[in-house]
Write a structure and sequence with these properties.
By secondary structure, the chain is α+β, with helices and mostly antiparallel strands. The protein has 2 domains: 36 residues, no CATH class; 129 residues, Nucleoside Triphosphate Pyrophosphohydrolase. The strands form 3 sheets. Strands 7-4-9-8 form a 4-stranded mixed beta sheet, sandwiched between helices. It has a 3-stranded antiparallel beta sheet with strand order 1-2-3, with no helix packed on it. Strands 6-5-10 form a 3-stranded antiparallel beta sheet. The protein starts with 7 loop residues before the first strand and ends with a helix. The relative contact order is 0.19.
Length: 177
């Protein structure tokens, strides 16, 4: 079996449509000749922000995450709006989530958080030159966010002590040099 051979989709149907993603059930023929049914979460993609008021600081947000029933400290992030460019979304989300507008954004990388069942790509941006936004930001109705500035040393300590448990945050902070 060739390492470059790819499955062939035999059929597909949407089994769920939500606000942020939809789920497709695909019937595929695998390169080894077998058939399989795969459920795939289709996602528009997201941006993850690393807002830095200074080189040695980062702003995290504290947010309640219903799926895990706990409050977590994490990097601000958000889903792309339909047709929205990632850089535009990064600026918008920075204003919405921490109340500051980045004069400079720098793409640091892009990663698939769960490629086994989801096509979401998370695009990471360092945000600097933080200032008041050009217009007052609106938060999503399901968000209750508390932004706070931390030293990078403190954040790394919180990760080491398992007090930051959000994977996108751990990955994002590993991108800082």
């Amino acid at each position: 079996m060739s390492r470059t051979a790819r499955p062939r989709r035999l059929s597909t149907r949407t089994t769920f449509t939500g606000r942020v993603f939809h789920v497709e059930r695909d019937r595929v023929r695998l390169p080894n000749g077998r058939t399989a049914t795969l459920d795939i979460v289709r996602h528009r993609g997201s941006v993850v922000l690393i807002p830095q008021p200074s080189a040695g600081e980062v702003i995290l947000i504290r947010q309640y995450r219903y799926a895990i029933d706990r409050w977590v400290w994490e990097l601000p992030a958000g889903t792309l709006d339909p047709g929205e460019q990632a850089r535009t979304a990064a600026r918008r989300e920075c204003a919405e989530e921490i109340g500051l507008w980045p004069r400079k954004i720098e793409k640091l990388g892009a990663f698939y958080p769960t490629p086994g069942f989801c096509d979401e790509v998370m695009i990471y941006y360092r945000c600097t030159g933080l200032t008041a936004p050009p217009k007052p930001p609106a938060q999503d109705p399901d968000e209750q966010i508390e932004p706070r500035s931390f030293s990078l040393a403190r954040v790394r300590d919180l990760i080491a002590r398992r007090q930051i448990v959000d994977m996108k945050t751990v990955v994002g902070l590993s991108l800082l040099r």
